[in-house]
Design brief:
Elements lengths: L1 H7 L1 H12 L4 H10 L14 H6 L2 H20 L6 H14 L11 H11 L9 H11 L4 H12 L2 E10 L2 E6 L5 E5 L11 E7 L9 E3 L4 E4 L3 H11 L5 H14 L5 H9 E5 L2 E5 L21
Helix pairs in contact: 1-2, 2-8, 3-5, 5-9, 8-9
């Protein structure tokens, strides 16, 4: 196990080694968190309680619980020396974008925390806080079911979706890059309308018996940038390749972008307005002149 981690996930290997060397303080408490044993009350104060979880759709509740457990573990694990590279990336992004949701920042908390935990990465193995927890967890007895749900979140990414209407309370979203269709609950409460373009993180059903996907982030609705412009965008940024290779590249592009803050910049500079349940953007990620908050903005620049 250690050899496999060392060869594919060097940051995680260093975290495991560092945890095994320490026997006091936060490391002990971190081991308790991972192992599912008694956790200090102050470390769980931000975790959604059982009463609120019980009021949620079961699929959403599963992901909220996992997300909050990742948040607790992240708070401690990023203090380890081995995690300094990723902690530095997230800290700089927090200072730059002040993620809190409109009107302070168009980067919502749900968007930014998913990016920080599961997308912001270092090294050739694209290690994240999430991948590190997935490597560390089994070493210290984390419950397999929690690991499985965290892995679903780690494999997720934001996507550009065409809204195809609402069917029995579920938003039907078609991924423009891969053509996959998801029937989704939208916990933010915004059902949307057919023909809209959404930028959102859509998570799969957390159990095989379930069918509802979950729009986990507050949905971003992209205005005045219709479907043909997004099709043209993906033609520009994806290779002319066989279908599966093109889908694989689309997955990579939407998760990591061509640069670390590519998608953060799209949200930050694309901001137009907001409502209680949705945030509105404009423009395209690869054309700075099309984004309303860009210094280069020109209203006629979309192509």
């Amino acid at each position: 196990m250690a050899e496999r981690i060392a060869s594919t996930a060097p940051m995680a290997a260093k975290v495991i080694a560092e945890m095994k060397r320490h026997s006091r303080g936060k490391i002990v408490r971190l081991k308790d968190v991972i192992g599912g044993r008694a956790v200090a009350e102050e470390l769980q104060k931000t975790v959604v309680g059982p009463e609120r979880l019980a009021s949620m759709h079961p699929a959403h509740a599963a992901y909220i619980y996992a997300q909050n457990q990742v948040s607790v573990m992240s708070e401690m694990i990023t203090e380890l020396d081995a995690m300094a590279p990723i902690a530095d990336i997230v800290s700089k992004a927090e200072d730059m974008y002040l993620p809190s949701g409109p009107p302070m920042s168009p980067l919502s908390v749900s968007y930014f925390t998913c990016w920080a935990f599961f997308d912001a990465c270092v090294g050739p193995a694209n290690e994240t806080i999430g991948t590190t927890i997935l490597e560390v967890g089994p070493e210290f007895g984390m419950h397999g079911e929690l690991l499985r749900v965290i892995q679903l979140m780690q494999h997720s990414r934001m996507g550009i979706y065409l809204h195809e209407g609402v069917d029995r309370g579920l938003a039907v979203l078609r991924d423009i890059a891969t053509d996959s269709v998801s029937r989704c609950i939208v916990p933010a409460g915004y059902a949307g309308e057919k023909g809209q373009i959404w930028y959102a993180r859509v998570l799969p059903p957390p159990w095989s018996a379930g069918s509802e996907h979950v729009v986990f982030t507050t949905p971003y609705i992209v205005l005045a940038t219709p479907l043909p412009q997004w099709i043209a965008y993906f033609c520009r940024v994806l290779p002319d390749a066989p279908p599966q290779a093109r889908v694989d590249e689309a997955e990579r592009h939407m998760k990591y972008g061509p640069s670390r803050n590519y998608w953060n910049e799209f949200v930050f500079e694309g901001y137009v307005n907001y409502a209680e349940q949705a945030i509105f953007l404009g423009g395209l990620p690869d054309i700075a002149e099309s984004r309303p908050q860009s210094d280069s903005y020109r209203p006629d620049s979309r192509s």
